[in-house]
User: Fold this.
Amino acid sequence: MTAELVHGQNHPLPGTRVEIRVSAGTAVVPGVTLGDGQGRVSGPDAVALPGSGGLPGIEMPSGPASEHRLAVDLDAVPAAVERVHVLLALPAVTGAPTRFGVCAAPHLALVAPGGAEIASFTVTGLRSESAIVALELYRRQGAWKVRALGQGYAGGLLELLRDQGLSATDAGRLAAALTAPAPGTGSDAPSAPPVPSQARDRVPPRERPRPEAAAGRRAATSPTTPPAPPTGTAPAAPPAPVAGDAAGRTLEERLYNQVWGMFEDLSRAIAAYRSAVDFAESRLDRELDAVLADPRTRVGPAAEAARDQARARQAELVDRARAVLDRDLAQLAAERDVVEPALPPPFAGWESPVWHGWTAPTEPPMAVRLGDLHLPERPELRIPMLVRLPLERGLWVDSAQDRRGAVDVAVALAARLLASHPAGEFAVRVVDPAGSATGALAPFTDSGALREPPATGAAGVAALVARLTQRVDLVQMALDAGGPVQLPPGFDPARQLLVVNDFPYGFDDRTITQLRYLADEGPQVGVHLLLVADREDAREYGPVLDPLWRSLLRLTPSPDDHLADPWVGHAWTYEPPLAPPGSQVVPRVLRQVAAARRTYDRGRR
Assistant:
């Protein structure tokens, strides 16, 4: 899976040959420097820019362009090289932008020789900078890694090269080359064929953000280098948010991408803030250790003054990081306030007015809302948790703390899934062995939205689970035959959602085995599982059920920070998708669903 890097994050490289693909909103000039363990270059012969000559192991494109491809063979670089820096600079030509802050955020992707994307990085938070060190490939214990830097320089390439150890004369000579692009390499001339968009869109946005959607969005500014507008100019105000301004063919797809773009922006903003706070604290520790290590400053007024200055620098860094975070979160809150009212029913909360005008859809949606997500730095800023349909995993509502609340969540989820599909294309089946969920299931049973009453008792449980197991077998055999799907007369083609309450009560060994089979094989052929259970109730089965729990997405009836995000390591708090207290929206929608299905059934006869 592709790693989407944030400022300061590193990632191992699977080999020593890699292609770096650059995509920017304007023409940029790429560059590469070869440095030692501290990143210092030995001289101008360790710098590669268009027109300045190549470097061992580095294949450079020529001239400014909005897209580039750089080929790097780390086995071919000199043995003394420990760090390879990838640079981007704006060409100093008439009519070209003079700072990255007015351009779409540059996006870099590292691609293995076979074409698989290894990692990517969108360089966000740029304002007055005209040159950046975007990536660092570095050697660590004999292996190579990549680190996302995004370090900007308002003084341009001259300042960048001097910071890496070049003399003012050498840095000025190399930087001057940007004012005279080679003939035929204007701002619109690509240095390589454009990267096909499908090469970056293989993975759904939740696992890897869509770079074309993220490129035009504001995201977290690196807190260690706060933005500074050019002297005499006011900072540009962020554009007013607009619902549906992300990439996509339909409004539904654009809104889906925009919601996940908001999730990604919030994730980046919090990651940048936490990284800045960690950096400030670690620098404070180093400075305090240095004070203690020096006998001349260990005690006395000088020592106290040094400690106060170190603490003041730490507080200043944290305050600056918090100011950047507050700015980014305010923009996100404004966007959320615009997007939320525009969401269609499958994406909207139960409190949304769109449910009052609900009508049966004619097509299944691309996704459905399973709740909200937020982080502790701003708990009131909640992002819809959208999951693609059809569901690839079953759902498990953990009833350990609140059994009735867990059933209420299951009812809300099942009602949302049922109402999001066209009439007759989705059916809900319920297993309630002891009848303990009768009250919570009333919206379904009273409305007629269920095609049959909930299965109760051991015999009812076994019969329903066996019937769905047989359904999975039939569809799989039909698909495996390779020809037209032949199913028995009267076979219901609708997708099935099995809601199981009080698992494993009422289940014997055979039905438990069948339930595990449904969880593993059912989603591929249209049978989905929604389990309401306390894992402790099934402890007598020991590790036999471990694969079942792992295969299901765990949800909770009350807010809980159990959803781990491997992308940047956040623990997201999940809020269940319940209707407002006293609201009758769920029973009303289910009555409309039942009426639409009856009309559909009459039309089939």
